[in-house]
Amino acid sequence: MSAMDLATLRRLAAEGNEEAANRLAELAATRGDLAELRELVDSGNELAGEKLAQLAGSAATSTSCAVWSARETNWRQTSWPSSPRRGRTSTNSAVSPTRATRLLRHS
Fold first, then answer.
1. Strand spans (E) along 24-102
2. Count of structural domains within the chain
């Protein structure tokens, strides 16, 4: 859509044309234009509020997914070795299986 078409839509929306305001809200949401959506919300357009909330929700979801992925990657890099022979302790015991065997032999 050209700049002239957007200007026409903005003018119509400012004059109170709800269809123009809704179309402008949809186009702004597609472009990710938060400033335009906020202006439309301030002028009372409900669709702009819904679109702004959707964009905020999707941004929060992708941010939390990125944080979770980074935490998972960090956990994998710092997790215990998978082999008990390399000193891994059981989550149910404070003593490694190798140490427990040695203790039992010497009792």
1. none
2. 1
* 31 found inside a domain: yes
Contact 28, 37 (CB under 8 A): yes
Give the CA radius of gyration of the chain.
Answer: 29
For residue range 53-81, what is the model confidence (pLDDT) as tens digits?
998 888 777 665 665 566 655 555 555 55
> Would you say the pTM of this structure is higher than 0.70?
no
Range of the domain at 44: 3-76
Residue 27 backbone dihedrals phi, psi, to 5 degrees:
-65, -40
Report which residue type is found at 42.
Answer: D
